[in-house]
From TrEMBL:
It comes from Chironomus riparius. It holds the Pfam family Sulfotransfer_1. Keywords: Transferase. GO terms for molecular function: sulfotransferase activity. The keyword Secreted does not apply. The lineage of its organism: Eukaryota, Metazoa, Ecdysozoa, Arthropoda, Hexapoda. SUPFAM superfamilies: P-loop containing nucleoside triphosphate hydrolases. This is Sulfotransferase domain-containing protein. Belongs to the sulfotransferase 1 family. The keyword Transferase applies.
Length: 319
C-alpha cells in the first residue's frame, strides 16, 4: 500500500508538478510537498531505498548552493582525486536522488543501478523535504550536509532557471506570488528549511550557508574536512579554491548539467531554446537588483512567519 497521497498541482507557471502528502503516522503532521511530475511513480522507491552507513547526502532547496557544495564534499571525500573530478560530469559523480531516470537516460542507466554500482562512499544530492527521504536515513544515520541561502536570492535564481525550461514565458510577478503561496517546485520552502535546521536527535549533519561559502571558502573547507574526518594540505586547499571559483565552474562543461537539461526539455515537450546557464551569477544579495521593494518587503514578512507555522516534527517523539 502506498504511503502517499498524490494529486495534481496547477500553478500558473507549470502543469508538470504534483502535490505529495506523506500519510505515514510518523510524518502525518508534515505539509504537502510540490514535486516534479516525474517523481510520481518513484515515491516508494525513495522511501525504501537501502542506505549504506557511509553514504553522504547533499541536501538543500534548489538554487541554494548544493552544486558547489557537492563538488567540495566530493573532492575531500575522495581524497583529492582531481583527475576523476575533471573527467566525469558532476551529476555522474553525485547523483541527484529525485531527478531519477530521465537524468540518466543519456548514460543508459537507471537510478537504482547507478547507485548500486557506485563505490562507497556514495555521494547523493537531494532537494526532497525531510519526510520524503529514505526511511533508513533515520536508522543508519549517514552523513548529511545541508546548505541554505537567502530566500530572495533563491527565488530569483530559480525563476531564471525555470525561464529556460518552459516554452511559455514566465511572468516574474506571477512567479514570485506562486513562491510566496508555496506553489512552486519543491515548496513549501519555509517548512522544509525549518525542519532540516531542527532535526531532532540527528547529530551526523553539517549545516552551511551559501553566504558563508562565498565569504570564507577556507572556513567552509575546514568545516567539511573536519566533518568527514579528513585533513587538507595547503596545496590541496588552494587547488580546491581554484576549482570552486565561480567563473571556473561556470566555464567547465562537467558542471553545466547540459546533457541532463536537454533530456528535461524533451521530457517536458518544451521547444524553449533560450540560453541555458545552470550556473548563472552566484552573487550574494543579487535579488536587490531584480526584486522590487514591494516584493522584498513581502518576502521578509512572509519569512518572518516561519516559526509560527506547523513545522511537522513532534518534538516529544524521537527517531
Amino acid at each position: 500500500m502506498s504511503s502517499f497521497e498524490v494529486t495534481k498541482n496547477f500553478p500558473r507557471i507549470s502543469r508538470e508538478n504534483i502535490s505529495v502528502k506523506c500519510i505515514d503516522q510518523k510524518w502525518k503532521n508534515f505539509p504537502k510537498a510540490i514535486l516534479p511530475r516525474m517523481c510520481a511513480d518513484k515515491l516508494d522507491l525513495y522511501k525504501n531505498f537501502c542506505i549504506r552507513p557511509d553514504d553522504i547526502f547533499i541536501l538543500g532547496y534548489p538554487r541554494s548552493g548544493t552544486s558547489r557544495l557537492q563538488e567540495l564534499v566530493w573532492i575531500i571525500a575522495n581524497d583529492f582525486d582531481f583527475k576523476t573530478l575533471v573527467e566525469y560530469d558532476a551529476d555522474a559523480r553525485c547523483i541527484n536522488f529525485e531527478i531519477r531516470d530521465w537524468s540518466l537516460k543519456w548514460r543508459e542507466k537507471t537510478l537504482i543501478s547507478s547507485l548500486e554500482d557506485m563505490p562507497s562512499p556514495r555521494l547523493m544530492k537531494s532537494h526532497l523535504p525531510a519526510q520524503l527521504l529514505p526511511n533508513e536515513v533515520w536508522t543508519k544515520k549517514p552523513k548529511l550536509f545541508y546548505i541554505s541561502r537567502e530566500v530572495k536570492d533563491v527565488a530569483i535564481s530559480q525563476f531564471h532557471l525555470l525561464s529556460c525550461s518552459y516554452s511559455n514565458s514566465i511572468n516574474f510577478d506571477d512567479y514570485l506570488e506562486d513562491f510566496l503561496n508555496d506553489n512552486v517546485m519543491f515548496s513549501p520552502y519555509r517548512e522544509n528549511l525549518w525542519n532540516y535546521l531542527n532535526l531532532p536527535d540527528y547529530e551526523n549533519i553539517l549545516y552551511l550557508t551559501y553566504e558563508e561559502m562565498s565569504a570564507d571558502l577556507d572556513l567552509a573547507i575546514c568545516k567539511v574536512a573536519e566533518f568527514l574526518e579528513k585533513s587538507v594540505s595547503d596545496e590541496n586547499a588552494e587547488k580546491i579554491k581554484d576549482y570552486l571559483k565561480f567563473e571556473n565552474m561556470k566555464a567547465r562543461k562537467t558542471n553545466d548539467n547540459k546533457q541532463t537539461y536537454n533530456i528535461l526539455l524533451k521530457d517536458l515537450n518544451s521547444n524553449n531554446h533560450k540560453d541555458y546557464n545552470f550556473i548563472r551569477k552566484g552573487v550574494v544579495g543579487g535579488y536587490k537588483n531584480e526584486m522590487s521593494s514591494v516584493y522584498i518587503d513581502k518576502f521578509d514578512e512572509w519569512f518572518a512567519k516561519s516559526k509560527s507555522l506547523n513545522q511537522g516534527f513532534n518534538y516529544t517523539e524521537k527517531f
